[in-house]
Design brief:
Layout: E1 3-4, E2 9-11, H1 13-23, E3 33-40, E4 46-53, E5 59-64, E6 67-72, H2 76-79, E7 82-88, E8 93-98, E9 104-105, E10 111-113
Parallel strand pairs: 1-5, 2-7, 3-6
Antiparallel strand pairs: 3-4, 4-10, 5-6, 7-8, 9-10
């Protein structure tokens, strides 16, 4: 059963704009919510998960600027206080993660260790 979580992560204005743009695309499944999480793997041991997904029983929900989000309860300790941004420049394009819980990060920007 889903429970409501205080907002564990933040999105910059750029990230909010890009997420809302994606949600407006034709064929977007409105039953899905934005999943913020982690999974094992990557250069430094863990990688970030950010994508639209169907809520699961172990998820907690929260909302940021009208965007419904879900996070597995066990992932909050790795992500609490993280800021998600969207870069749209010539050298980099995509979501970036600034995680105060990471003891080290990889040059790819999507892998970290705690």
């Amino acid at each position: 059963m889903e429970t409501t979580l205080s907002v564990p992560v933040t999105f910059t204005n750029g990230a909010v704009e890009e997420l809302k743009r994606l949600m407006q695309e034709e064929g977007f499944d409105t039953t899905q919510k934005l999943r913020v999480g982690v999974k094992g793997g990557g250069c430094s041991g863990m990688t970030y998960v950010l994508g639209f997904d169907t809520p699961q029983d172990a998820d907690e929900t929260f909302e940021i600027e009208g965007i419904s989000c879900v996070m597995n309860k066990g992932h909050e300790m790795y992500l609490y206080g993280m800021q998600i941004d969207f870069q749209d420049g010539l050298n980099s394009r995509g979501f970036t993660f600034k995680n105060p819980n990471a003891s080290s990060t990889c040059g790819c920007g999507t892998s970290f260790a705690v």
